[in-house]
User: Fold this.
Amino acid sequence: MKNLIALIPLLPFIGFLINGLGRKVLPKGVAGLIGSGTVLASFIISLTIFLQGNYAAPVVHLFDFISVGSLKIPFAFQVDQLTTLFLLIITGVGFLIHVYSTAYMHEEAGQHFARYFAYLNLFVFSMLLLVMGANFVIMFIGWEGVGLCSYLLIGYWFKNVNYTAAAKKAFVMNRIGDLGFLLAVFWIIAKLGTVSYNEVFTAANLAKLSATDITGITLLLFVGATGKSAQIPLYTWLPDAMAGPTPVSALIHAATMVTAGIYMIARSNALYQLAGTTNAIIAIIGAATALLAATIALRQNDIKKVLAYSTVSQLGYMFLALGTGAYTAAVFHVMTHAFFKALLFLGSGSVIHAVSGEQDIRNMGGLKKALPITYLTFLIGCIAIAGIPPFSGFFSKDAILLNAFAYDKFLWAVGLLTAALTAFYMFRLLFITFNGSFRGTEAQRHHLHESPIAMTLPLIILAVLSIAGGFVGIPALFTEGGEKLAEFLKPVINPEHTVHVEHSTEWVLVGLTTGIAVAAIIVAFLRYRNYKAEQPSAVGRLLENKWYVDELYNGVVVKPINALGSFANSFIEKSGIDALVNGVGKLVNYSGRQLRWLQSGQVGSYVLLMVVSMVMFFVLQFFLRR
Amino acid sequence: MPINYYIFLSLALFIIGIIGVLTRRNVIIVFMCIELMLNAVNLLLVAFSKMHHLAAAGAGNAVNNVGSEGQLFVFFIMVVAAAEVSVGLAIIVMLYRNTRSVDINFLNRLKH
Amino acid sequence: MSISEILFYALSAVSLVSALMVITSKNPVYSVLWLIITFFTISGHYLLLNAQFLAIVNIIVYAGAIMVLFLYVLMLMDLRKESEPQKNKWLKLAGAVAGGSLLLVLVAALRNADTRMAEINTGNIGLIENLGRVLFTEYVVPFEIASILFLSAMVGAVVIGKREKTIRTTTNTLQQEKTAEAVTA
Assistant:
């Protein structure tokens, strides 16, 4: 059992090593096979663990990682219910995306193909480390590892300057968040002297923390989560991250990595349940992010950008759930979102593949006939994300909205509005892309084709999961003995209070949510059934330019820092440090030039100087030092 | 004899050698002065060797070989000096052959 | 005052005077001769100290071999005449002052030094028998290394002293002779 658990992250790591080191010699087929096979093996092991269902001793101690004074940080894994769920999502969805990638990336040169799979495996390894770690430090290793892989994969086509700039942006923004995470860990160490979950989250230890400690720690952890999970104010990197290959967007920037923040907060739920202020902040930021991203998504024309903002929006939902104390609902949404968002991204990849790399939906249209499988699965994904019963998105979103309703009516209203916007922009995307007539070039039209089986098969599997995935968490409202997920997660996530809403109210809420989503879909259908280029209104332009947030950040943060940097460069560096350093050099140079005259080659003067210095030494030795 | 006397005698010889080196320009004379300085040191070494021998004998030391190291050192210094003179004179001969002079200041041509 | 003390003073006086003559005489040949006298007096000191082996070696190696080499070089260069360029007199003064001050400093430093006695006329460590035993047991490795030093000095002297042009010409002539032989054969 112990070895089996260690194998889960180890296998992708071995795959990374083989692909990374042998990238110049491995043929593409072998590289793809190794990349996918190791993840598949991890998935099978995870499935075994899940089916065994034996969580009696979740912590597996491998070796001592850091041992300094009284601080002992073991390298240990903790595989409990929450981790198992994430393991299944990561390795399962990850495997599908690996398979998809073998076809999608097939045009890359062999070396870069293997490099891609090496990065992807390294990412899976880091992500597994993140969710399996039994303490905050191991989690932080994975946390940094996924950030690194995200950077590497966004900048995968490193010859394009814009892409590398996007990679840098993602990296820097993540670092800002990571600092918060790190400070929180330090704070925990300073107060409790341990970072292991099962020691930190004991009642005795939690009682040691003052209210300030708890608020501070939870807020700092949340800062880390905003960076990784793209919440206000650190969300702008995620849409830019679409510069990476589409399967990467599906795996990292939709299904797994961006949910790391949700995992971390769900993992620390014992801590967060004590922090009322932080929860309110989380809920507000989550709701605001959801709404903001949804409005931006309304007017984006890049197929991946729409999905990216939709991801940000859905992450906002999850944080709304976390803030309202509905940890199970958040994890539930992570799961369903992983299914349908991976599906949507992979579907968009299939579309992009079909139209020869075009990403602007204004140049698409009418793809329904050429890409029947892609269209169907994409449609399922859209229905799922829009929250139409009985697709998976409906259940998770409903759970979140229900909790929000019980927590605060205003937040609930925001959530409801966002749900309507979500349905609207997703179906706008669907109709513009697949309905109407084709608006691309003739060459693209001839090239239109359905993707190979390696790409459509993951789509179909994910579509099935998107339909059925919601049934694990059917609320008690619909069937007796629902809430399987909550029951499953109970040992890890045990909220002190559960929401009690009258069944009649709940029915009204469900009906309202569904009705508003359907209405939005109808509006979208009427408006975008036959898309024609249109002049954007003032608001439209504002949305198209993403509320000018990037420009605002540029003006407020980037430019002053650049100015500070150039000031430091021109004044402190050039006329301060450089002058000092060069001054030393000049001094040596000058004195050397002067002393050169002593080195005359005249033996007589050498001897004279030698004798004089001997006299001086003797004088010093015998007369002055006494 | 008190060791002082030997110290001062060899000091005087040594200083004479130094002054010779400093004041003469003929390379051969400079070289001879160096030999003089070496001899001054040799003399002092032998004197010290005998001094230590006497001290050891006074202390009733059975193995009476104390001090022979000093004299062996003199022997080795002579060996080195002989080697040095052979090479040094060869250099001087070359200098004379190239410059037709034995002026020590011409030795700065070794720089080039 | 015993006979050996008298001898000590006399030898000291002669050695100092002759050493001074070495650096003051104009003619380098005279300098060499005065230096030989100095070496002889130093050998006398060795004898007084009962270091017979060193006394003999000093005379053979220094006064004999080395100084003869000096004389030989001088004769080779034909430097009997007053050809030595004189140094700037200020430089000379500076040199004398520097040397004098070194003497002063050292004498002042050592005037209160140990007044133990150095053995005169007695003791047998300076005899060949004793020195030889030590030299060939404890110091045999340095002794052998000294021979390598000599070898390298010899090679060095030959390399420095040889005339490249002449060597080339001799080889040329040798080759010419060989070709001539071949032609006649």
